[in-house]
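User: Sequence recovery, please. Input:
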């Protein structure tokens, strides 16, 4: 585990392609844990990626607690409900591993790209060297978004490892 003091992430209001305003803000574990777990309990498993999110409530709780101890998250919130979650987990090489999940009702409306852009700027300001992520080679939408934002495929095997150099 790498201990890092993460800078504060300022709240942003984004307008999605459906014209809805959605708040993107820092995740606070004590206050937001239940809301985030609720998003994943209601998450359609057809949109899981590499076995995540976990399926049962207990496994989701353990996963969220693990991520909160080891990483930094931002969430998208609409009407007090979490509709998107992006987490970065630093590694030993001053890079971060990134995962993102948008609730099925909010996918394909530009929210994922907005959250990615915000975290890329955040990671630059925080001084990280790069962002690493893994996706399935069949996940055309995710790959489209990542490539559009400058990520390159660095290991094209069963999974795709993708990387964005920040420095
Ligand atoms: C992948 C994900 C994060 C993207 O977020 P999103 O908010 O749905 O995506 P956006 O609306 O911002 O952008 C989607 C883009 O993909 C394009 N797209 C949609 N379906 C596509 C497909 N089948 N193939 C290629 N491109 C596709 C859209 O046209 C849009 O691109 P554009 O803005 O250039 O027109 C989200 O869909 C998601 O959570 N998916 C399920 C979980 C997942 O796969 N997470 C990735 C971790 S492995």
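Assistant: Recovered sequence (167 residues):
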């Amino acid at each position: 585990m790498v201990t890092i003091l993460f800078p504060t992430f300022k709240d942003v209001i984004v307008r999605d392609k459906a014209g809805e305003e959605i708040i993107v803000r820092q995740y606070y574990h004590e206050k937001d844990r239940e809301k985030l777990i609720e998003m994943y309990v209601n998450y359609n498993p057809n949109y899981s990626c590499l076995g995540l999110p976990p399926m049962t409530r207990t496994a989701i709780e353990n996963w969220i607690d693990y991520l909160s101890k080891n990483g930094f998250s931002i969430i998208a919130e609409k009407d007090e409900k979490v509709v998107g979650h992006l987490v970065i987990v630093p590694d030993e090489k001053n890079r971060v591993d990134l995962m993102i999940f948008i609730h099925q009702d909010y996918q394909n409306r530009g929210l994922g790209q907005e959250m990615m852009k915000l975290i890329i700027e955040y990671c630059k300001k925080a001084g990280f060297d790069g962002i690493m992520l893994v996706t399935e080679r069949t996940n055309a939408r995710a790959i489209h978004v990542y490539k559009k934002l400058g990520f390159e495929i660095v290991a094209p095997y069963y999974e795709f490892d993708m990387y964005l150099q920040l420095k």
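Residues 12-127 form a domain with the Aminopeptidase fold (CATH 3.40.630.30).
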